[in-house]
Write a structure and sequence with these properties.
The complex is a heterotetramer of chains A (311), B (386), C (249) and D (295).
Chain A lengths: L2 H20 L3 H26 L7 H18 L4 H23 L4 H22 L14 E2 L2 E2 L3 H23 L2 H11 L1 H6 L4 H27 L9 H14 L5 H16 L7 H15 L4 H14 L1
Antiparallel strand pairs in A: 1-2
Helix pairs in contact in A: 1-6, 2-6, 2-9, 2-10, 2-11, 3-4, 3-5, 3-9, 4-9, 10-11
Chain B lengths: L1 H20 L9 E7 L6 H20 L8 E7 L4 H13 L5 E3 L4 H14 L2 E4 L16 E3 L4 H15 L3 E7 L2 H13 L6 E8 L7 H9 L4 E5 L3 H12 L6 E3 L6 H7 L7 E5 L14 H15 L4 H21 L3 H11 L3 E2 L4 E2 L14 E7 L2 E4 L2
Parallel strand pairs in B: 1-2, 1-3, 3-4, 4-5, 6-7, 6-8, 8-9
Antiparallel strand pairs in B: 10-13, 11-12, 13-14
Chain C lengths: L2 E10 L2 E11 L4 E5 L6 H9 L6 E6 L2 E2 L5 H7 L1 E3 L12 H9 L7 H5 L7 H13 L15 H14 L4 E5 L7 H18 L2 E5 L3 H7 L2 E6 L2 E6 L1 H6 L1 H9 L2
Parallel strand pairs in C: 3-8, 3-9, 6-7, 7-8
Antiparallel strand pairs in C: 1-2, 1-4, 4-5, 9-10
Helix pairs in contact in C: 3-5, 3-6, 5-6
Classes of the chains: A mainly alpha (311), B alpha/beta (386), C alpha/beta (249), D mainly alpha (295).
């Protein structure tokens, strides 16, 4: 991790600690929680797309596996929530390996449609065999550790953003390591990377699994926060939403994931005032931001700032 | 130095968020009620009339002087047919608007997602969705009520009628959404009680375009009748396919069928379709002394005059929910616990649009199969079956 | 012998690009592969580095058959290459390009990378910097690679290949797009690599002056077949080679 | 046997729309290498605008038809000129795909604003009793859908092989640079491809609406299914998309008929994945073609 990033993480940490002190409004904190959950999924996809150059339209599937597995394990098998979350991450990661091996041989549109296919199959499975079927199921135990139940929104806010801090540190370390260089090498030229002795297949699978692990962690946290699950939240629509976060935030910078999650999650809330028009305004904002901020917000801000200081 | 740029961005967005979310108006001591409906998204056909109904009622109530002099303010939130959005909306209503009670959401899933939140906030929720597990087990649903009839009641009405017709073997076709799934479960569970066997169990997706295959399978399984359980365009497509195939066995629809729009869309194909419908749809054909008739007449005519469309049974669920809360407020004032208790104990033989409600500590819905009339489509209109 | 090419054949959609190719590269030599356009030189390079599969034949590297190995394993054994149509990592800086090349000898697991048990240490940076100095790109160290002129991009590819600490480098038309001065520098660099680092070089090149100037041995391909082999002076006089280059055109 | 026939016809009907959407994908893909995920929205535009002119404004059938196709063409044109053209020079394909998603959301918003959330329908093209075909019952509209799809395929084939513009478009899809050197205005070709794909989507919508109704948010599902059809047939191959579309429709119908209707989408997806892994170039494509594609 570079010095700049270390300071950025520190600032993020301070912001997180301060935020609930500034606003005691549970509604805003709840939005903060969902921003965090989405950011977790988006961080994984940013590494996969921006650094390893692999597209995925199936993140909702892993998000769903994380949520459903953790819920089922803690509800039906009485596993402590912490363990059920870990177990669900492992299950999602194993699924990711199985999916990655055939899929990652494909490129571009083909990879996109293959991951889309897997994501939708997982969605159908949840619909057909998930507890409660399409209607979903409730009464999932809320997050608890060593007998202590997290009951307030503030506690959940801290829990989720603590996870993000860890995930950010891990991810920033990773992309600034030798492995990170290798990943970016794969992004720019697979053929050159492989002749330099980089086992691209293995690395791609690993990144894919990492993104699945982040998504499943997010799903599990979602399940134990909302305590109700139904398959509708884990469809292709969510995968597209995450993709949108990554692109709008800027996929060449991992901070873009958080910025993208922030914007895409908050936008509908802000647009509540528009009532019926919101989908129209939403589509308009997405289109315009894609047209005029091609690189995404964070890289744009960084670049503008650099240009500005150079003057 | 780039982190300063990042920091600025963060601050900018947070302030924007705070700015946008604090747009409260300053009325003089209004009673704040929250409403969460699926105004957009796949379940928007529910949320739309519900929202309209509430807007209309609030205007009427305030024009008539409000509730004991207090203006009524209903803050309507769109859940976009999505549970996460419903949770966010509920949090906003509870925390920001400090509402006394929430009516809605429109679907079972969204309602279920709100159960823990409402329980924790100790605030009344009157859902407009049908699922039985919204209010059951009652002990764990202390703060939760609903105004939509149970799916099981609709199934009961259908099966009772079928027995009279001598039908023993049915094929069911359901949509793969919460509504269809709940109906499917009820149909399968209750069949043995009526001595009915389900010979085919077919499904289709909410955006499917053709159900011929499923219907042909039902026919070839030897069913004496088809029951379709869905809302939205699916029920019209099934009706059209059923008509085109000349299946020779009757088609039953769920209680979601009760919209004139369906008759328009299906045209001739709808002739002979049977469904258990709330009296709202057929109020004109009710005998004058029926206790629901005056309410229905007022509601439906006013709604149609105002919105140039029919409210449907769903709008009625919102009507009942809001009127219950209003009545409670009138009698016990702005006290969350008292409002809840009033609804549990005082809503007895209470004629609403959905039926005659009898709430009790054991039943937070208060409707049974008598809320339905069996209705057949004849000459492009409804006709009550005896 | 460091590299033995044995009976390699390859066809594309019915057209035989390579017919029964045989030749060997001696350790420590600069071996050139020449021939008119379409002779199959790049295909052969791709087959040796493992990027493309051959139909039949065998490749021995340091006496071992590598035909079944994926490209990255060949790299592990000490085989590196550059590309005719430049495959630099465009969005990385020069330094990062070289560091990526050092991945081979400095691999880290995912977990240890993420937990920063072993990051990119000073040692790696120093080694990379010395390679950049070696290829005379120190003044460009922190620049984004895609902004470099072609000549420097070619140097970068060679530097990146060196970073893997190979025993044999395949250079695929390293002088394409270079001016005379750059070509001269290149030929010095190639000789320096062989002389100072003892790395064997197999070079495909069109620039005859460069080839004749630095090669110890030349193999000539035409229409997918070896038509001549020998020292530069011999090849220059070979009538078959002359007709291949002048004849049909 | 009757059952099978019935399933097949049911599959052909849905498959027709998938095929038309798939062809639309391919036409745009060939000229730009973009996957236009707003493709399904044109089907919805077709159905809803047709209703608007036919039932809403009570215009005669042919007038309504031409106006609907004109509207779709105009929207396709606007979409290309306003969003795709400025981005095309930059060549970031992923960004362009995201833009098409954003546009599909925008179109959905506009349609909802104009038409509300109710489904719409209008009478079949010809009134009359369904046809009994060896025991299988086929409505006249089903025949219309299949027939119109067939006519579209033939017309497109003639267009791409017999007309100057069509050949120019084909040349563009093979090699943009060479096409430019030959004096073809590539920018106009791209625009034309968007217009044609929009019109084809709208035709599908116009034909299917009497059977399946149309509402503002049906497009996303159609985009996904049409995309699958295009992939199954091999991206960029219009005849492949036709085969892919019909295969997908029939597979869905057969799964619903013989296995279980709950799994029909899953089986279709599994088969698509199988084709992807075994023959990524599609059922009929050659592997070499894949290598020519940058994305």
């Amino acid at each position: 991790m570079t010095k700049g990033n270390a300071i950025a993480v520190l600032i993020l940490g301070i912001l997180i600690i301060l935020f609930p002190q500034v606003t005691s409004d549970n509604y805003i904190l709840t939005i903060g929680i969902f921003v965090g959950i989405n950011a977790l999924v988006a961080i994984g996809l940013t590494i996969l797309m921006g650094y390893a150059g692999q597209i995925s339209l199936g993140q909702a599937g892993f998000y769903g596996i994380g949520a459903y597995m953790s819920a089922i394990l803690s509800m039906n098998f009485g596993l402590p929530v912490l363990f059920s979350i870990i177990a669900s991450i492992i299950i999602a990661s194993l699924t990711a390996v199985i999916i990655a091996i055939p899929s990652l041989r494909l490129k571009g549109h083909y990879l996109a449609v293959a991951t889309l296919g897997f994501g939708e199959i997982i969605h159908i499975i949840l619909n057909e065999w998930g507890p409660g079927g399409p209607s979903g199921f409730g009464d999932i135990p809320s997050f608890n550790i060593l007998g202590y139940h997290l009951s307030s929104t503030v506690e959940y806010f801290y829990l989720i953003w603590l996870c993000i801090i860890f995930v950010m540190i891990f991810s920033l370390n990773l992309i600034h390591s030798m492995t990170g260089k290798a990943l970016r090498a794969i992004h720019d030229s697979e053929i050159a990377a492989v002749t330099l002795g980089i086992n691209i297949t293995k690395l791609k699978i690993k990144v894919f699994v990492l993104s699945a692990a982040y998504a499943s962690l997010a799903g599990a946290l979602y399940a134990h926060y909302v305590t109700f699950l139904s398959p509708s939240g884990f469809s292709l629509f969510y995968s597209v939403l995450v993709l949108m976060m990554v692109v709008i935030g800027g996929m060449t910078n991992i901070w873009g994931a958080i910025a993208g999650a922030l914007i895409i999650t908050i936008l509908p809330e802000v647009l509540r005032g528009f009532k019926e028009f919101d989908i129209l305004v939403y589509g308009m904002i997405l289109t315009l931001s894609l047209l005029f901020m091609r690189k995404g917000i964070v890289p744009l801000v960084v670049e503008t700032y650099k240009k500005w200081t150079l003057r | 130095m780039r982190k300063i740029g990042r920091l600025l961005l963060f601050l900018l967005i947070f302030t924007a968020l705070i700015f946008f979310s604090s747009t409260n108006s300053f009325c003089k001591e209004p009673y704040n009620i929250g409403a969460i409906f699926s105004v957009t998204g796949p379940a928007s056909f529910l949320g739309e009339p519900e929202k309209n109904t509430v807007l209309m009622l609030v205007e009427q109530i305030n024009k008539a002087g409000g509730i004991n002099g207090h203006p009524l303010k209903v803050i309507i939130e769109d859940s976009k047919s999505d549970e996460t959005q419903a949770v966010l909306a509920a949090k906003k209503l509870l925390e920001k608007d400090k509402v006394l009670a929430i009516i809605g959401p429109s679907t079972t899933g969204e309602s279920m997602a709100l159960v823990p939140i409402m329980t924790q906030a100790q605030t009344l929720l009157i859902s407009a969705a049908a699922g039985a597990n919204i209010t059951q087990p009652v002990k764990e649903r202390y703060w939760i009520f609903k105004t939509a009839q149970y799916d099981t009641s609709a199934v009961e009405a259908i099966y009772t009628y079928m027995k009279k017709q001598g039908i023993n073997k049915v094929g069911i076709i359901t949509i793969t959404t919460g509504f269809g799934d709940a109906g499917r479960k009820a149909l399968i569970e209750m069949a043995p009680k009526f001595g009915i066997s389900i010979v085919a169990d077919e499904r289709y997706g909410p955006k499917d375009t053709d159900m011929t295959t499923q219907l042909v399978k039902i026919k070839s399984a030897g069913a004496q009748a088809v029951i379709n359980w869905s809302v939205g365009p699916g029920q019209v497509i099934v009706t059209k396919n059923w008509h085109a195939l000349k299946m020779g066995i009757p088609l039953y629809q769920s209680h979601g069928w009760g919209s004139k729009k369906n008759l328009e869309l299906a045209g001739k194909a709808a002739e002979g379709v049977i469904a258990p419908l709330g009296r709202l749809v057929v109020w004109e054909k009710l005998p004058d002394k029926h206790p629901q008739k005056p309410i229905l007449k007022k509601y439906v005519t006013e709604y149609e005059a105002r919105y140039k469309s029919e409210p449907g049974t769903f709008g009625g669920h919102a009507y009942d929910a809001l009127m219950m809360v209003v009545e409670a407020l009138k009698n016990v004032g702005p006290d969350k616990k008292k409002i809840r208790d009033y609804i549990e104990t005082k809503i007895k033989k209470w004629p609403g649009t959905g039926g005659i409600f009898n709430m009790s500590p054991n039943d937070h819905c208060g409707l049974d199969m008598t809320a339905f009339e069996m209705v057949i489509v004849k000459n492009g209109d409804w006709e009550i079956l005896k | 012998m460091i590299l033995d090419i044995k009976n390699i054949s390859k066809s594309f959609g019915g057209i035989r690009a390579l017919k029964d190719i045989n030749f060997s590269v001696k350790k420590g030599e600069i071996h050139a592969l020449i021939g008119p356009n379409g002779a199959g030189k790049t295909t052969l390079m791709n087959i040796i580095s493992g990027v493309e599969k051959m139909d039949s034949g065998d490749i021995l590297f340091k006496g071992m058959s590598i035909k079944a190995l994926p490209p990255y394993k060949r790299a592990l054994m000490g085989l590196a290459r550059t590309f005719q149509n430049l495959e630099i990592f465009g969005n990385l800086t020069i330094l990062e390009n070289i560091i990526a090349g050092m991945y081979l000898k400095n691999q880290r697991g995912f977990l240890s990378s993420g937990l920063m048990i072993k990051g990119i240490n000073k040692d790696i940076i120093e080694k990379s910097s010395s390679i950049i100095e070696y290829i005379n790109l120190s003044h460009r160290k922190e620049e984004i690679a895609k902004n470099l002129p072609v000549g420097e991009q070619r140097l970068l590819e060679i530097g990146r290949a060196l970073a893997t600490e190979p025993e044999l480098i395949l250079l695929d038309e390293p002088a394409a797009g270079l001016n005379t001065r750059e070509t001269k520098n290149l030929s010095h660099l190639i000789q320096k690599i062989r002389d100072e680092k003892g790395i064997t070089i197999l070079i495909v090149e069109h620039d005859m002056e460069l080839v004749m100037g630095i090669s110890d041995m030349i193999t000539v391909l035409n229409f997918g077949e070896v038509i001549a082999e020998g020292e530069p002076l011999m090849i220059q006089k070979n009538p078959q080679v002359i007709s291949a280059y002048l004849g049909e055109d | 046997m009757t059952l099978l026939l019935q399933f097949l016809f049911s599959g052909l009907t849905t498959g027709s729309v998938y095929a038309l959407v798939g062809i639309g994908f391919n036409i745009v893909y060939n000229s730009t290498s973009i996957i236009n995920l707003a493709q399904g929205e044109f089907v919805v535009i077709g159905g809803l605008m047709m209703w608007f002119f036919l039932e809403g404004m009570q215009l005669p059938f042919t007038v309504s038809l031409s106006l609907t196709l004109l509207t779709a063409a105009l929207i396709g044109l606007l979409m290309e000129r306003l969003t795709i053209k400025p981005l095309l020079k930059k060549g970031d394909l992923l960004l362009m795909i995201m833009v098409t998603i954003a546009i599909s959301i925008l179109i959905r918003g506009i349609l909802m604003f104009k038409f509300g959330k109710d489904p719409y329908t209008y009478p079949p093209f010809t009134e009359g009793e369904p046809i009994n075909f060896y025991g299988a019952i086929i409505t006249q509209q089903t025949l219309w859908v299949i027939g119109i799809t067939a006519v579209c395929i033939v017309l497109l084939y003639l267009f791409f092989n017999k007309t100057m513009i069509g050949r120019a478009m084909k040349a563009c899809s093979l090699d943009v640079r060479a096409a430019r050197l030959m004096g073809i205005n590539v920018s106009n070709i791209v625009m034309l491809s968007f217009i044609i794909s929009a019109v084809i989507g709208a035709i599908g919508g116009i034909a299917i609406t009497p059977i399946s109704l149309m509402e503002y948010d049906k497009g996303a599902m159609l985009s996904v299914k049409g995309f699958c059809a295009a992939i199954m047939g091999g991206l960029g191959r219009s005849r492949g998309a036709v085969a892919g579309g019909f295969t997908l429709g029939i597979l869905e119908s057969l799964t619903a008929g013989y296995i279980h209707s709950g799994f029909k989408d899953a089986v279709a997806l599994l088969i698509m994945l199988f084709i992807l892994f075994v023959r990524p170039a599609g059922m009929f494509g050659k592997a070499e073609i894949l290598k020519l594609r940058k994305f």
